[in-house]
Structures are given as C-alpha cells and as structure tokens.
C-alpha cells in the first residue's frame, strides 16, 4: 500500500539533521527512529552543514544584500538623471549643457 506524502516541519528536519551531525547513531538507525529515508537524512545533514556559516554571518550577510540593492537603486538614479540631462540639453540647445569636471 502506498503511503501518503507527509509534510515535515523545519524543526523536525533540523532535529534529524542535528542528530546525524552528532554521529551517535548510524544513518540507518536514525532513519528507523524518525521514519524517513536515509538519503533524506543525508541531504538534510548536508544542507545544515552548508548553511551553518550563514547563521553566524550576522549583519555582514544582511549588509551585503542591502549594499547590492542600494547599488542597483543608485544605478537606476544615475540612468534617470542622465536621461533628464540629455533631454534638457536638446531642448535648451547645445550651449546650455554644463561642463562636467572629471
């Protein structure tokens, strides 16, 4: 008989992955205990170990995301200002464009 698909909580997955990381029991023993496939435990353990660094990144991880968003916003603003400047220089004539010092 086919078993219906279960929805497992993140807390359950984390506890299984932590038990696997501890290494007190084998993957087969954990699979029997938690009633999940051994490959699933290996996958959750791998995810936990790969993403553990991000948990302790703190503000640095958030700062990088904020910086990327801010850079994107500033690039959009630069593009808008460039278009406005070019439009005004065409409307007002070639002599009205201010010189830009670099």
Note down, in words, how this protein is organized:
The protein is mainly alpha-helical and 102 residues long. The protein has helices at residues 10-22, 27-34, 38-55, 59-92.
Secondary structure topology:
Layout lengths: L9 H13 L4 H8 L3 H18 L3 H34 L10
Q: Give the strand content.
A: under 5%
The end-to-end distance, rounded to whole angstroms, is 76 Å
Main beta-sheet annotation: none
DSSP strand count: 0
Category by helix and strand content: mainly alpha
Short characterization:
Helices cover 72% and strands 0% of the residues.
Summarize this structure as a short list of keywords or feature phrases.
4 helices; 102 residues; mainly alpha
């Amino acid at each position: 008989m086919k078993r219906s698909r279960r929805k497992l909580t993140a807390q359950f997955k984390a506890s299984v992955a932590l038990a696997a990381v501890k290494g007190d029991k084998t993957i087969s023993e954990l699979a029997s205990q938690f009633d999940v496939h051994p490959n699933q435990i290996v996958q959750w353990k791998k995810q936990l170990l790969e993403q553990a660094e991000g948990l302790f990144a703190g503000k640095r991880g958030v700062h990088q995301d904020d910086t990327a968003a801010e850079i994107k916003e500033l690039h959009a603003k630069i593009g808008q200002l460039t278009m406005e400047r070019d439009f005004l220089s065409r409307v007002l004539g070639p002599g009205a464009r201010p010189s830009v010092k670099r």
